[in-house]
Amino acid sequence: MYQAARTVAASSSSRLHSPVAWSRKSVQEGYYDLEAGETERTPLLYVRDNGRYRAKSLHRANDPNRVHPVALGLMVALLVFLLIGVVIGVYLLLLTVQRPWPVSHPFFLVERPAWWQYPVALEAATLDRLAVTNVIVLHTNSEDCLDQERCVRYLQNTERSCWAARRDHIPYNFLIGGDGVTYEARGWKSQHGFVDLPGRNTTLVVGMIGNFTDRQPAEVQYAELKAFITESIRRLSLSPQYRLHGAVDATRPSRDGTIALYSQLERWPHWNGFVARDQP
């Protein structure tokens, strides 16, 4: 009896100190001893291995391909910083583009399809934009246009008369009206149509709508001309080292040189004198 009591005591002591107590019967039936294992945080599964039983954690192993949330956040932050750096770099690059003057007057453009919606499409030699280094300014020697309706009518009438006379389009690249708006004629991509003006492949010809022999254009026209030059540089359609010219009749250069239109242009940056043309 004493020996039996010692056996029972040893069995109870082993049961109290073991995290999971089990018996042969429990192994065979495949369940835990809940009385001993109820305080375990991580349940163990006992599996048979070469005739012996070993404990196996029910927690799954970490996936080696899984991206840690902290690492993912760092990568997103790095991409954001790189994007900000690119934006700042582009902005600083744009600041290096030379501007002839501070422009407070906004640039207004009416494109050719807005005022000419007829079947005859523009057909003109392509302008080499990389070589555009000159701007020639002249007046149209016509009536003023002080609103968009009259300016559009002037462009339409000039286009019709040029086409009827020589089967050609309006010769200017752009015209600026008294309403302070730039009107696209041949644009930045086509050569001007004046046969008596030089540099057809290196020049933009801008017409100031009106007769400015004895009087100057309105300030808004001068302001729009500045805005046009700045916009042309921004579009890489005009070299920052451009040259600004006026046009005079070759038979009377001294008289045309006193045209009121040029009294202000001669004081502008990049002014480079007059070019002669065969006809006024």
UniProtKB/TrEMBL annotation:
Gene Ontology annotations of biological process type: innate immune response; peptidoglycan catabolic process
Transmembrane portions of the chain: 70-94
GO molecular function terms noted in the UniProt entry: N-acetylmuramoyl-L-alanine amidase activity; zinc ion binding
Family note: Belongs to the N-acetylmuramoyl-L-alanine amidase 2 family.
PANTHER family: PEPTIDOGLYCAN RECOGNITION PROTEIN, PEPTIDOGLYCAN-RECOGNITION PROTEIN LD
Keywords carried by this UniProt record: Immunity, Innate immunity, Membrane, Transmembrane, Transmembrane helix
Name assigned to this protein: Peptidoglycan recognition protein family domain-containing protein
Domain Peptidoglycan recognition protein family residue range list: 107-249
Species of provenance: Anopheles melas
Cited SUPFAM superfamilies: N-acetylmuramoyl-L-alanine amidase-like
